[in-house]
Fold:
Amino acid sequence: MRDLKMCLVKDFMTTDVITAHPDDPVLKIGALMLARGIHRIPVVKNAKLVGVVTRRRIYGNILKKHLDLPNDLKEASQDPLKLRPAG
Structure:
């Protein structure tokens, strides 16, 4: 490999990029991310980048919806027993 100071972004970038569309089902994209070991997927509409979706954001929202999470996550980190399944 060349001297790191001389390397360009193109030397490290992925060219086989998996993208999502804003109307794709979120669970389908989340499953794809898990299956491929991907943490972030660009969201493209009409050949324009409109955002990025992350595994953390997807699964964080799923967990918030299905667990009774305290508003203060600092409090939860001090007492993990406060996390209770919703319902």
